[in-house]
Amino acid sequence: MTPIVEGGVDLAEESVQDAYVVALTAWERDGIPERPGAWLTTAARNKALSTLARRQTLEAKLPLLVVEPPTEKPADPLSLVFTCCHPALSPEARIALTLRLVCGLTTPEIAQAFLVPEATMAARLTRVDLTDRAVDLARLLHALLPDESEATGLLALLLVHKAREGSRVGPEGRLVRLADQDRSVWDRVAIAEADRLVVTALRSRPPGRFSLQAAIAALHAQAPTYDATDWPQIRTLYDALLRGWPTPVVALNRAVAVSMVDGPAAEMIGTPVSARSRRSGASTSVTMPATSLSPSTVNGDAAPIFSALAST
């Protein structure tokens, strides 16, 4: 009975009770043994040994099941300030993020300091966060699928939009037209990266809709002024995009490009590309007319893009 004694009185009582329960079944089946007391003692002892073995196993394995929560290191205030004041952000967004994340001010307090509605400030703070998340996810997708041209095109498209975010919204929270945006605050490093990605995407295979949209956005971003925008090439890109993705928004944007090249009445007189394609039974796959893509007719910044297009 040593194991029972080592386990304490509670274990002894439980083991004896279990032994009696087993005896009721075993003795009815096999008959009463010659020495009932010895039989019960042995049965109780075996029960105690099994219980002690389970306890020892549990005590040894239980610490392995407990996961210590990670110790959260306090954020480095200096690193947080540098993150909030990234050059890609507009000055208003930098100040607002610093006040929110570093100083702990609430959105209503920041909006009051900027003399703008609370909804405007909330949208400004959220817009910065969402844009960063979108670019990060696009980079991850591009890293996982480096040979997928549309993943490359998507990353390029988001980079161009992020490069211009500092000029897209005015102090009052209203959208600023492309013609009125301050191009000096655009992130030229991001635009250059997007340009390289566009060239890669267009050379990989026939361009998809993300690659074409990225090429259009890159042309807008490369123009030193709004008046210097290469509208003929943008119209060519919209022609291809409309054939592969015939949506009302694409048709409207193409109409703007046509009007910038041939005048406001040109699109009203002409027939939309999508209608011509459907009427003739032509395929809706994206193809580019090679004759309109001569690099010699393109400005220097856009030449690599259209050299890639001409080779597809």
Short structural description:
The chain has 16 helices and no strands.
Notes on the structure:
About 70% of the residues lie in helices and about 0% in strands. By secondary structure, it is mostly helical. Helix 12 packs antiparallel against helix 13.
Pattern of helices and strands: HHHHHHHHHHHHHHHH
Q: Strand percentage, roughly? A: under 5%
Helical residue percent?
Answer: 55-70%
Q: Give the mean pLDDT.
A: 78
- Compute the CA-based radius of gyration: 36 Å
Low-confidence blocks of residues: 1-5, 269-299
Which class do the helix and strand fractions yield? mainly alpha
Distance between the termini: 88 Å
Task: Give the number of helices.
Answer: 16
List keywords for this structure.
mainly alpha, about 300 residues, disordered N terminus
Fold blueprint:
Layout: H1 2-7, H2 9-30, H3 36-65, H4 77-84, H5 91-102, H6 107-114, H7 118-144, H8 149-163, H9 165-168, H10 188-204, H11 209-222, H12 231-244, H13 248-262, H14 266-269, H15 273-280, H16 303-310
